Amino acid sequence: MAEYKFSHYIKKRQALSSTAFGINNTKLEATIQNTPISGENLLKWIYDVLAILDTKASALMRLNGVMLATTTFMLIHGATLQIKVLIIFNALPLTLSIILCLFVVNVDWPFLGKAKMPKTPDSATEIAGQTIDFTEEFSRLESMIGIRTLIYRWAWGLSLFAAVAFIIALAIYLSNQFVI
């Protein structure tokens, strides 16, 4: 069996967890130890990152939804051709951003579903002493961090572009509403 290679994040997280920083230190440095990493800690560290991405993607979807609702209101209530064009430049990236965020919050497989169990015994006592292989579970989870981070960055970029179009459209819409 091939040796499992931990990502840089896991190595840094391990160093951080095994280091105490003194008050008089001029640098915050930690030495990577060659100590075993608890599977429970490893799982927690990975899920902490995925939970952060999930929270950020959920907040971004809410923001996108508010901007979409506002642009829909402007479209229905007296939008000029100029505003309609800006709304299209706003709605398309917002919608794409929401779709991308759905991939960030997606649950791809059951928790610990990639862990390989030995052949299912007839009773619980027959499993004692057998080995469960978590390699694929942790490998997949670590790759999900990279994939979902990249997807989130794309979604955020689309939202930023849309927010600029939204502000311009809203400014034009409001200036047209209050022209005397």
Characteristic terms for this protein:
180 residues, mainly alpha, 2 domains, single chain
Description:
- The structure is a single chain.
- With 180 residues, this protein is mainly alpha-helical.
- It has helices at 8-17, 39-76, 81-104, 135-177.
- It has 2 domains: 7-37, no CATH class; 38-177.
- α2 runs parallel beside α4.
Summarize the structure.
With 180 residues, the chain is mostly helical.
| Percentage of residues in strands | under 5%
Oligomer: single chain
Work out the number of β strands.
0
Largest sheet: none
What's the layout of helices and strands?
Layout (H helix, E strand, L loop, with lengths): L7 H10 L21 H38 L4 H24 L30 H43 L3
